[in-house]
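Thread amino acids onto this structure.
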């Protein structure tokens, strides 16, 4: 499952990168997976265990509400502040992953 998640993220990141090759404007993350990979994955994992020993831990173990996760995400030290669209996308992505892990 972990390999499938990583493979899916890499395919998605590659597709987003290729989509912007013909454009002169910067590519903006359009999905929660991309935002997570770019802004969260340095400190957090989303695989259901702590094997990676990341500083912020694995987010599947926290089980936060959408409101709590949104506030938590606003306070994280990312390289740049998340836009409202990026914030919504990454919160939805993590909540879907948590629901999938619980079911």
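Threaded sequence (103 positions):
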């Amino acid at each position: 499952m972990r390999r499938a998640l990583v493979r899916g993220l890499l395919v998605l990141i590659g597709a987003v990168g290729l989509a912007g090759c013909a454009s002169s404007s910067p590519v903006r993350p359009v999905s929660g997976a991309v935002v997570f990979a770019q802004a969260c994955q340095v400190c957090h994992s989303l695989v259901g265990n702590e094997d990676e020993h990341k500083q912020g831990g694995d987010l599947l173990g926290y089980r936060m509400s959408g409101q709590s996760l949104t506030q938590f995400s606003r306070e994280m030290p990312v390289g740049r502040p998340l836009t409202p669209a990026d914030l919504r996308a990454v919160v939805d992505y993590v909540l879907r992953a948590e629901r999938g892990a619980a079911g």
